[in-house]
DNA sequence: AATTACACCAACCGCACATGC
DNA sequence: CGCATGTGCGGTTGGTGTAAT
C-alpha cells in the first residue's frame, strides 16, 4: 500500500541536469515563481519529476546561492551548530545565508565529521587549526587506517532513523530528537553506529529549558525571562549568532538576524 | 601507463508534516 | 474528521575526478 510516488517515473529524465534544462527551469520560475512543483514539469516542458525540479532550484539554481568553498568561519559555525543541533541541516542552512542544507550536509559528511571524530576535544576551532581547508590535507594517511566504505556498510548494521521534518510543534509532539541522536554527551554512538561528538540538546538542558527551546525552535528564549545567561545552553545559538554577525558584518549580518528572528517567532 | 581506492557532491529516495478539500 | 496532495527533510546512492600504488 502506501502513498503513490510523487510522480510517474516513466519517460522522465534522471541524473545530472543539462544547461538547457537549467535554463528552462530558471525562466519558468522567473515567470511563475516558486511552488506547485508537481505542475512545473508539465507547464515548463521539462521531463523531470517535480521533486527533482524543486531540488535543483533549491540547491543549485536559486540566485542567492553562494557557490564556492566554505570559509573557515562558516566551517567553524557549522561545527558549533552541529554540536547543538545535530543533523538539523535545514536549520543550519537558515543560519548560513547562501548555503543549502544539502551543501552543509555534504560538507559535514565529507570534511567535518571525520575531523571532529578524530579530534575529541575542542572541535569547534578546527578551522583555526587547519586554516588551509580540508582539501589541502593529505588524503591517504587517514584512509589507510580506515575501513573502506563497503566494509563499513557490511559492519555497521544499525537502525537508521527516518527523516523527520523539524517544526516547533512536531518536536514537542514527537520528541523527535530520539530519531537522530543517542547518548547524553560527546563520544557516544549515533543511531548510524558512528561516533558522535556533539551533545544531545536534551542532555544539556533542564526539562523546563527543553520545553522553552523546543517551543522556540531551538533559539534562545529571550522573551521568557532567561536574560541571555551565557551559561544557559539554550542561549548558545544567540551567542553563535553574535559571533557570526561579527564575522559577516554589513548587510548579510542583518539578513541573518532577520532570518534568525523568524526562527524564534 | 594502467589499475585501484577514495573523496567529493549532485541527485535520488522515502518518509513525515502541512494544508486544502 | 479523514483523505489526498504538496512540500520539506535527512539519509543514501552513484558518477566523476584524482591521488596512490
TrEMBL record:
It comes from the Eukaryota. The keyword DNA-binding applies. SMART domains: SANT. InterPro entries: Homeodomain-like_sf, Myb_dom, Myb_TF_plants, SANT/Myb. Residues 9-65, 66-116 form the HTH myb-type domain. Its main location: nucleus. SUPFAM superfamilies: Homeodomain-like. GO terms for cellular component: nucleus. It is found in: Nucleus. GO terms for molecular function: DNA binding. This is Uncharacterized protein.
